[in-house]
Every structure is written in structure tokens, then in C-alpha cells.
Design goal:
By secondary structure, the protein is of the alpha+beta class. Helices cover about 50% and strands about 15% of the residues. It starts with 8 loop residues before the first helix and ends in an 8-residue tail after the last helix. The C terminus is likely disordered.
Length: about 1000
Amino acid sequence: MAKIRVRARAVDMLGRQQIAGIPTAIHELFKNAHDAYAKHAEVDYFREDQTFVLRDDGYGMTKEEFEGRWLTLGTESKVGANRELAPDYLDEGTPRRVVLGEKGIGRLAIATIGRQVLILSRAKKKDGLQDLVVSFVHWGLFEAPGIDLDKIVIPVETLPGGTLPGEVFVKKIVGQVADNVRDLAPDMSTEDVTGILNDLDAFTIYPDQVDEALKGLSLRNDGRGTHFYIMPADPILERDIEEVGSDDIAAPLHKMLLGFSNTMMPDRPLPEFLTAFRDHRRNGVVEDLIGRNEFFTPDEFESADHHFEGEIDAFGQFKGAISVYGMAPDPCTIEWPDGDGQQTACGPFRVKFAYVQGNSRESLLPPEDWGRISAKLNKIGGLYIYRDGIRVLPYGNSDVDFLNIERRRTKSASDWFFSYRRIFGAIELTYEHNTELREKAGREGFITNKAYRQLREIMENLFMALAKQFFRKDADRGGEFNKIRADLQHQNDLLKKREKRVSERRQKFEITLREFFNKVEEGKPQAAADKIRAETGRQLTAIEKLKDNDSAVSELLKLEGYVRREISDLRNEYTIKKGRGFSTSKKVQAQWYSYEDTRAKLEKDIFQPLSIWTDEAISAVAGQSTIALDRRRRAKKTLDDVRDNSLRIARAAGREALNEAKTLVEAVRKDSRERLSKTTENISKTLAEFAATETASLTDEQIKEKQEALQRRISEAAEEEIFRMEGVINQLHAMAEAINIGDSLSDETAALEASYVGAREQLDLFSDLAQVGTALGIVQHEFGATIRSVRENIQRLGAWADLDEELQQVYSDIRASFDHLDGYLSLFTPLNRRLQRHRIPISGEEIRRYLQELFGDRLERHDIRMIGTRDFDRKVIEGYASTYYPCFVNLVDNAIYWIVKGGVQERLITLDADDVGFTVTNTGPGISIDLKDWIFGFTNTEKDGGRGMGLYISKQTLTKEGADIILDNPGKENHPTFRIIVPEVTDQETGEEENGED
């Protein structure tokens, strides 16, 4: 009698070849962890050696279960499991879970990730924790042709619970597989045998070592669960992580693993099962690719423009509520016409999704939020499907439009409204009510049976009905949507028009500021003043030589008027009117403040001295006996010149204002005539339509309906134009009112705009600082316990060092290094309370040595010298190390960057001191005058990839201690010198000490 023989390749065909790819395989393993009642399933992928580790904290497997279930294909262990009672070994309070897999081949997905795997599993049963089960599989044996399945040996060993296999144990169990390969060699190709044996020799991952490095989920001590160690992982995994076709396409791994649990809904509890995928890059950076914030968050869901929620009953009818633009939910019932009054095969389910408008101008979201959420929608937007809270693949992927939404939209965007990439939400199924929706073996979607076809038809009908009822121009229930969208578009158009009007003025203002600073940097104000002084001196010499007194007096008066105009023109050339009617960026605001300081300095150092000199020089000549010119006559001439010049400027401004007023009046007249004409025309057309209506054949009721319809059209046409004219009236009224009280509407608008921009920037700052504070709080909490332990052990080592001379030097070096580290890490204490802080004497020499230790390698690498003067080394102040040290660190770090970037020949950083405080000078490029204050602002930086926080934090920290930091010598031609101004310290302050731990 013949028997069916099973080749080992059947396992490969049932497993690896049935899985679409590595992300799908990982998804399957996550589902297995879920079925094992794990609370966490975490992947760590190390790119350096292509090691893949997947750990869960589920209830694990005993040796019997591993051999009878995991190593047995097509087991019935999960078949009907959802109809059974929950396992009796679950922890108290653990809710029963719906089993996600029933085919018994999901475990074979591992072969897709890598060719060989070390498996560890430790079970928890009613009688407690069990021994550790260890096994090793090389899937290459199942790919080789000609080998019967029963000839392959899978070693299974046990270890006492709480222990992990090390190098010796792993090599032993791997060696058992190698022996099996050698036994099967006659039935295999030489190439296959060599390849598998080479793989086995290269398997050098040992759980006891990995467990120490990874922390977290562990099988040591009281740990339980199942862990997989795969080495090497298929190289395609790294490509799956990195592969991004464009900004609109997510990497395959993101598409498949994001949203494994339904975490986007605001009204849902936190999932019982959480996943992670940590990518350990070669540069040491570790990134969780599927963290909760990578998926849609509840806050993002709530902020969307429109929300749709309801239930599809057993007959396919939708009952729910629709909220458009944040309006109160509107009850909505949508019939499925193909239901025929019979219950559906797919069963009842819930649907909830949000929608964001495709144009920012039509959305209620702020532009930044709209852009951020839109970028996420483009990559991972779509309608997901969850069964009992766990995602069903591949639904939700932006390239899986299973409801043909984009196809309909392509035909007519105005009719069908919805775009698949603007939707995020879920169809929520349950095993209990939707059993006929069955997944394919390869997890690439549901089997296309009657239940799935009905699900699709019901949802397509829902989207089409929603578009017709709420979002078409003529939609019965689309009044609110169309009105709000029109208002948003109108507001956006107004803002665009305003931006267009003011952008030219803003640009001109910014150019004028730049030109001012360029001229000052080039020394042009001083050169112009010197020229006026020289010309004045030359002409005075010529006047003194005139013999005719009347001619001399006349020439002297002319010269004085000329010089006065020249000095006035020079002042005007370097005087900028503040921009009005528009807001400016933080950088331009800082430039304006720098301008005011610089302009005041020009007045003090150049313009005023020039005026005094010319007046004295002319007075000296006028007082000579040969030239009789009294002061009164000169004063009268000066006042006449000022009067004429002022009247000339005022008359020009008045003419310009009158011309603008005439233009405004004409524009108002034209607009009013056009709107009145349009209203009259619309009314005439409506009346003509009524006149052409045959009323004899109409009933009284029909005539009345016709009359009311035409009345509405007349009223609506008139109201729209009246509304526009009232807007003009309000603007004119506001303008007249502002003129009467001496205000400026453009200044008011600019102030409001600047206030809005400032408030948003401040909100961003507070958000950033809150995150920093939270992070520092965590660091302080974790660091505190560790550092106390290190401190105690150093003290113990000190006691031994007192008894052993050989230990004394070792102890001394460790103690010095620890004190240095302890002081430096105190910078990371929480922002609201600094522990372990004392005012101490701080010398320049200590600071210099600290900086040399910290930056020594970088300085040497870039051939930069850092020197401290004798004054610097001898300078001693009283203060907090955590206040001053970071400031010097930041200044030297910036200096190194700019010296290298500037490509200067002399590479030098000089540390100096005087009575005021410390200075740090570097030979890098100068900092322009307009940026002297701006560089100390939050996030203000010109460094490539810089964060703009160093100088800001340094200045804020110093200010709190009564100190300050300034740029001492702004100017592009000057090597930057930063001055740290140190406050005077009283005896009381010197002895002051903050409370805190020691």
C-alpha cells in the first residue's frame, strides 16, 4: 500500500513562500505574541551584523507544547480557540483575548526574515514558571530538494528556569544541526551543504550577552515569554526600512507595522498589547520606527476638519453622526439599496474616520499642523481595518484603495469629494460578528467571498451617499460645509492679497536695513563726514582770504546753509523709517534694534561732533574783525532754512495723502456703482423670468411656490451685494475714526499680526521647553540613584586606599575624574530645581584646564591653538559651576566650528580677563552688526544643522545670576570677542549656599 511522503520543501512552500515579505512576517509574529497574551512584542534590529531579535512577554511554551504545537504544522491548537474558555493560568484580571491565527503556519514566517533562528521560550502555567526551552532551526534545510521532512533534526533542549544559554551552550545546539547537515549531505548539493555549514559557523549571537545589552523584556529570573534570535537577517530588511520612493510613499516596514493596534481613536482605551521596532544604526543612533507618535495620534484625529462615526447594522444600513468643520454632530442614516431586507454575510460593524481638506485654505487647521498631518496622510493615510483591535493587512496602506475612492474622484472630483489619502480612520470588526470575513493564507487581505464583497459594496455606497448629501455644491445637507469652506477661501484670499500688498514694502524695508549695515561696516558714514569737514575747511580758508566784507558775509552764510544741508542729508541717508503696516521676522526685529543702537552711536560719534565742529569753525571765522557776521543773523538764516525744508516735506506728504484720498473715493464710487448695477440686473432677470411664466396652467399653490422662490433669489442677490458694500462702509468708518483720534489702521493690523506670530512662537517655545523639562526630569531620576551608588563605592575605595599605597594614586585619579563628571552632569538636573549647587571660587585656570580636557582632541585635529592669558588664569570669581562652565563650553564649541568653516589661516582661541569679567576671542569670521543681539535669541543660528539654543540658554542662565554675556565687537571685519560680565559678589553672597543634597 502506497503512502504520501512529505518533502521538507513543503514547509518552505507553506511558510516563506506564502508570506508577502519581511514586514508581513513580522506582523504575523506580533499576532502570535498577541495570542500568547503578551503585553509587549519588541524587535531590535542591529544593522552592523544583521542581527534580528524579537522578544515578547507572553505565557511561553513548555517543551511538550513546543514540540507538539510549534514544530507541528497545521495544528488544531487555535482552531475553535475563540469558542473556548480563557486559559486557566492567566494572571488575575487579564481579559480574554480573541485568537488571531488558526492556520498553524504563522510561525513559518520566521524563515522570511532570516535562514537560521535560535528560539527561547519559557512558559508560565498554573503551577508556576517552567524551565527554559531552547531550539535552533536552519530553514535552508527545508529549501533543499530531495530531502524528506522526517530526516531533518530540530534540536530541543531545556535549561533551568531563570538562566540563559551562553556561548558554549549555543555552539553545542548549533553543532547538532551541523551534524544533521553532514548526515544529509549525500542527498544535498555540495553548494547547499557548504552554504548551510558556513551559516552555522557564523552564528555568534549569545542570549546571555544580548540580554545584558538590551535590557527590558528578559527571560532571566522571573521572566517569561518567547524570544527569537535571527542571524543574519535577510539584507532586504534594511532596504524595507530605507526604501522610500518619494515624500508621498512610506517605507514598506512602516506601511505594514504602523498601527498594529488601534491607537488613533480619542475615545478608545490604551491597547492591551504594544509593539516596537528599534533600528540600531551603524552610527549608534537607535530609532523606534513604529512608535505611537509615528502613527496617527488621538489629538490629530480630533483636530481633523470632518468626522464620521456610526454603525453598519446586520442589514447593511448606516446609522451615525457627521460633524462638518467642528459643528455639532448631525444625525445621519444611509440606506444600502442592495440589502433587500436580508441580513448580510459580513455582519454588523462600526466605522469611524476623520477627513482633512486637501487645500490648506479650506481647512480649519493652522498651516503648520495642516502640513504636518498632510505629510503623514500622504504616506500612511487610508481606511484601516481592525478585528478586535488588531490590524488586518494590508488595509490602510495609502496604495491599497480597496473602496475605489480615488477612481471615482478621478472621474469627477467635484461630485465625489473624498480622497483616499485625506482619510484616516478604521472599520472595526469583531470575531464574534464578522466570522465570514476570512484572511488569505499569505495575509494579503480578505478572501474575496460574499462577505467581503458586501463589506466593500456597503462602504462604497456610504462614501458616495456622504458625498451627495453633504459635500456637493447642490447637496441637500451641504449648506454648512459650502458656507464655511467659502468663508475660509475668502479669508485666505484676503490674506493672500494683503501679503502681496505688504511683501514689497517688507522686502524694501529689509533691503534698506541690509544696505545700512553694509555701509556702516564699510566705514562710509565716517568717510562722508570727513569729506564734509575737509570741504568746509577748504571753503572757510577761501572765505578768509576775501577782502570785501559783504562778499565774505554772503559766502559764509551760503557755506553755513550748504554745510547744514549736507549734514542733514548725511543724517537722513542713515535714518530709516520704521516699517509700518506689516510684521517682520524675529531676525529683522533684532536687526531693527541693532539699527537703533548703531544709529544712536553714529549720532554720538560722527554726526553730532561734525555739527559742533562746523559750527565752531564757522563761528571762528564769523567772529573775525574783517568779517562782521553776528549770531542773530546766522540764527535767523538757520531757522528760515529749517522752516522751508520742513514745509516742503509736509506739503509733499499732504499732496500724496490727498491723491490717495482721491483714488480711494474713486474706487469706492466705482465699486458701489458696479454692485448697484449688478443688484439691479439680477432683480430684472428674476422679474423677467416671472413675466415669462405661464401662470394660467399653474395652481394657486404652484404660483405661490414660484413667487417665494423668486423672492428668495431677489433677496439673496441683493443681500450679497449689500453685504459687500457694508464691508466697504465699515472700512471707511474705521479709517475715519482712526484719523480723527490720530491712530493708524495699518499699524494696528501689523501689531495684531506681530502679536499673533509672537504668540505662536512663544507657544512653540513653551512646548519645546516642556519637552526638555520632562526629559531632564527623567534623566535626573535615573541618574540620581546611579550616581549615589558610584559615590558610595568611591568612598569605600578611599578607605582601602588609605591602607594600600598602590591604590592611593588609582583612587586619586578616579576621584578627580568622578568629581569632574559629577559637576558636569549636574547641568542636567531639572530646570525648576538645581540640586548639589554651591557658590564656589572658580578660577580662570580651572576653566582653561577643563576646556582643554574637553576639547583637546578637536583642537588638535583642526590645528587650533587655545591660549589663556595670565589675567585669565589669575581671575577668580564666586559662582555656580553649572552657570559658568556651560557658557565657556558653548563659546569654545562655536569658535571651533566657525574657525574651521571660515578656513582662516591663523587658528586661535584666546581666553582673557579684566575688571569686568572674562572674554573669549576667536580668529573666525566676524559677526555683522545687525546680528549682535539676534544670535542670543532662542533657535536663532547660522550654523549648519545648529539648534540655536546654546547662546540663548547661556545668556538666560547668566542673567538669572546677575551676570551677562554680550558680543563685544560686532562687525564683519572683527574677530569675534564675547564678554562674560561677572557681577560683584558681596560677602553675604559668597557664603550663600542653596539647599540640596550633598
